[in-house]
From TrEMBL:
Listed GO CC annotations: plasma membrane protein complex
Full protein name: ABC3 transporter permease C-terminal domain-containing protein
Cellular compartment(s): Cell membrane
Residue ranges of every copy of the ABC3 transporter permease C-terminal domain listed in the record: 309-410
Entry-linked InterPro entries: ABC3_permease_C, Lipoprotein-release_system
Record membrane topology: Multi-pass membrane protein
Family, as annotated: Belongs to the ABC-4 integral membrane protein family. LolC/E subfamily.
Length: 420
């Protein structure tokens, strides 16, 4: 009975076993001939053994194409989704850090009842008198709701642009949504209800639309007319610090001199951006958690339950002289080939989707714009820590799940394994 099963099994596995056996025999011959050559020959024999194991593991995967192809597709989808979120969020953090390098060192806002209020011009002189403070400028900016697009524009006075009172510069996203360009007239409604007509003098084509997507630049006089703001008031103030290492100390002095003010450091703004992206990234991962759990259940079901054919194959390998360690290494190579292939394909697809296709899959979640979505491409970058974390989450559980049933079958008596 046993001999009959052995004969049938030998026929089905002849090609793979012959290749591996020839490899082992060749390796043993080389080990015998090279005993005097030292460690170099031992290393060569070790790598050749692994090569034969990889060849056999690849042949075993190809013998079960349908099962492994389905698992590969699900595996690739999982890696693609998680890698897309990681790459997009990391790219947005990097973009925010680059943009904030040119932001003011400190912003001072006035608070009334815990809410942002206009800043009197006399408080600018108070800021200039504080030791350690450099240049102080009052800023004019605000939000304008456009009922046509149902979006909020960021309107800002730009004295350095030397715009006339009837001219404006608009962001490229606003230009797309309103379908206007240079020379067209854009009508806004002032705070007193009167129409304000502006001719578009240019479209802001910044290196990153994160800053200029919904931006409208006008002159200071036009801003005050549009929002009915008196000439002795500003939205907030920006200032420079002579010694950047004393920025926190200067902020404390400002809080003492102007108790109703709130100083904001550039580093604090950057931390706020990072916190926002971390929160949105966490929400996205939480939505993807059921998919990860379903994959782990599928992987465990596929790997933990060896089919009778696989058990019979392991029994035959034990009968022809394979050791338990060889079988475990072969199963490890099977899982490694499958998981690393899925990881590579999924990561490359995510890379293309984020950096070259606009990252449209998770962009609405992570960018946070409601109507005027900025259209820009992130700078490709590779984070080693990010890759290692993704590998640990997606690859290690499957590899561990394949070793346990393989070890159980490997320590079983060959006769019992071949009988199923």
């Amino acid at each position: 009975m046993i001999r009959t099963k052995l004969s049938e099994a030998f026929i089905s596995l002849a090609q793979s076993n012959i290749n591996y056996s020839l490899g082992l025999n060749t390796q043993l011959t080389k080990e015998t001939l090279c005993q005097r050559t030292g460690e170099l020959c031992v290393m060569r024999a070790y790598f050749e053994r692994q090569q034969y194991l990889i060849d056999y593991a690849l042949a075993a995967l190809l013998r079960r194409k349908a099962r492994n192809l389905g698992l590969l597709l699900v595996y690739t989808l999982l890696v693609f989704l998680f890698a897309s979120v990681l790459l997009l969020s990391q790219g947005l953090r990097r973009e925010a850090a680059i943009l904030l390098q040119d932001a003011p060192e400190m912003i001072v806002q006035r608070l009334v009842a815990g809410r942002h209020d206009v800043l009197p011009a006399v408080e600018l002189e108070t800021l200039r008198r504080i030791r350690g403070v450099g240049e102080v400028r009052g800023r004019l900016w605000g939000y304008y709701y456009d009922p046509v697009t149902k979006a909020n524009y960021t309107v800002m006075a730009a004295p350095e642009r030397n715009l006339s009172n009837d001219r404006m510069l608009i962001g490229i996203a606003l230009s797309r949504v309103r379908q206007v360009g240079v020379g067209d007239v854009l009508s806004l409604r002032a705070a007193d209800g009167t129409p304000a007509l502006f001719r578009i003098a240019g479209v802001l084509e910044s290196t990153s639309e994160l800053l200029s997507a919904d931006l409208v630049l006008v002159s200071a006089a036009a801003f005050r007319t549009l929002f009915q703001m008196p000439p002795d008031q500003y939205t907030d103030a920006t200032l420079t610090v002579r010694n950047p290492r004393e920025a926190s100390l200067i902020a404390q002095k400002i809080s003492l001199a102007l108790p109703a003010s709130r100083p904001l450091l550039r580093t604090e703004i950057l931390r706020t951006y990072h916190a926002v992206f971390d929160w949105r990234e966490g929400i996205t991962f939480l939505c993807l958690a059921p998919l990860l759990l379903a994959f782990l259940v599928l992987a465990w079901d596929k790997a933990a339950g060896l089919s009778p054919e696989e058990k019979r194959e392991i029994g035959i390998l034990k009968a022809i002289g394979w050791e338990t360690g060889d079988i475990l290494r072969m199963k490890l190579w099977e899982s490694a080939l499958l998981s690393l292939t899925a990881f590579l394909i999924g990561y490359l697809l995510a890379w293309w989707q984020v950096f070259y296709a606009g990252g449209r899959l998770f962009t609405p979640v992570l960018k946070g714009w409601s109507v005027l979505y900025p259209d820009f491409r992130l700078t490709p970058a590779v984070g080693l820590a990010q890759i290692l974390v993704l590998l640990a989450v997606t690859t290690l559980p499957y590899m561990v799940a394949t070793l346990i049933p393989g070890w159980r079958a490997a320590i079983t008596d060959p006769d019992a394994a071949m009988r199923g």
